[in-house]
């Protein structure tokens, strides 16, 4: 008989909604290990502008997936999934792993398993890449080749077409197979907040990050030889600060520019988590309540769902 996959809480929601505060508050109820699913907190040296847990929070609750590699190194959803599987496996008995983050692709890669394609003929792959780069109506081709294709941009459409034509099976088939081999079952806790509240929190958060030395941080990274196009520095806010340092964005417009792009990103995150969590069990909470009150509700529901 197959061993059932463990059920793991996964805290998700837009940037600034309060995921880290909730995770730390949950430590009152469980001995926690937090696995960060954040595509920027993974980088060392990106501190002021990524909302990493404070050192006090990290002393209170062990966090994995933070400060893993240097800016300049590429990190992918697939690599995160492989790393997170190892972190989950290393959580000691008696402690509860909780995944916390807003990078939807990272979470999906972990929850749905790693898609392992068979070897693809490099010549045919190169020829197909040239065709997809120039083809019109690529999304329609993807939908014909994979009935489960639901959109997601030109790159995703090209990938769907490539897998279907070169493997003989649709991408969704490979993903379903990977999901069956996954290492965990998710129990999602999705944090939301009224638009006005979230916008206010984002504004306050950005202002605090700038006061904490965000511009100086980017200056140090650029002086060390990195560029605005370096993996890690192509993140929200870092791009705008690099433009400011290059004198193409005035100081008086910097905060508003970062706030605007962060609000747009938060809206995309909300849409993603509203539609992409699938049929997995999910508890949706209004994050205007205090983290301690939210933690009490999460802990009470967890006792029910884990039975």
Q: Indicate the low-confidence ranges by residue numbers.
A: none
The structure class reads alpha/beta
CATH topology of the largest domain: Rossmann fold
Instruction: State the shape.
Output: globular
CATH superfamily of the largest domain: P-loop containing nucleotide triphosphate hydrolases
What is the CATH-assigned architecture of the largest domain? 3-Layer(aba) Sandwich
Average of pLDDT: 92
Most strands sheet: 6 strands, parallel
For the biggest β-sheet, the strand order reads 3-2-4-1-5-6
Number of strands: 6
- The helix/strand order is EHEHEHEHHHHHEHHHHEH
Radius of gyration of CA atoms, rounded to a whole number: 21 Å
> What is the percent of helical residues?
40-55%
User: How far do the termini sit from each other?
Assistant: 19 Å
């Amino acid at each position: 008989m197959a061993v059932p996959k463990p059920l793991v809480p996964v805290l998700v929601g837009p940037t600034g909604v309060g995921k880290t505060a909730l995770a730390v508050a949950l430590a009152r109820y469980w001995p926690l290990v937090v696995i960060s699913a954040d595509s920027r907190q993974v980088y060392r040296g990106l501190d002021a502008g990524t909302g990493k847990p404070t050192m006090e929070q990290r002393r209170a609750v062990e966090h994995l997936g933070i400060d893993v590699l240097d800016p300049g190194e590429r990190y992918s959803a697939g690599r995160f999934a492989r790393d997170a599987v190892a972190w989950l496996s290393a959580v000691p008995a008696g402690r509860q792993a909780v995944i916390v983050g807003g990078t939807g692709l990272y979470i999906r890669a972990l929850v749905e398993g790693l898609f392992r394609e068979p070897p693809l003929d490099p010549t045919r792959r190169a020829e197909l890449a040239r065709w997809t780069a120039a083809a019109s109506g690529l999304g329609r081709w993807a939908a014909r080749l994979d009935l489960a294709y639901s959109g997601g941009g030109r790159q995703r459409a090209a990938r769907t077409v490539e897998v279907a034509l070169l493997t003989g099976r649709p991408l969704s088939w490979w993903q379903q197979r990977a999901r069956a081999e996954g290492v965990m079952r998710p129990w999602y806790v999705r944090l939301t907040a009224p638009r006005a509240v979230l916008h206010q929190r984002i504004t306050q958060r950005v202002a605090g990050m700038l006061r904490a030395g965000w511009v100086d941080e980017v200056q140090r990274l650029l002086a060390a030889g990195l560029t605005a196009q370096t993996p890690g520095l192509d993140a929200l806010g870092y791009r705008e600060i690099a433009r400011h340092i290059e004198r193409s964005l005035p100081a008086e417009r910097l905060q508003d520019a970062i706030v605007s792009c962060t609000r747009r990103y938060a809206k995309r995150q909300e849409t993603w988590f509203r539609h992409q969590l699938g049929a997995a069990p999910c508890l949706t909470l209004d994050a205007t309540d205090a983290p301690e009150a939210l933690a009490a509700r999460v802990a009470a529901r967890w006792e029910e769902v884990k039975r």
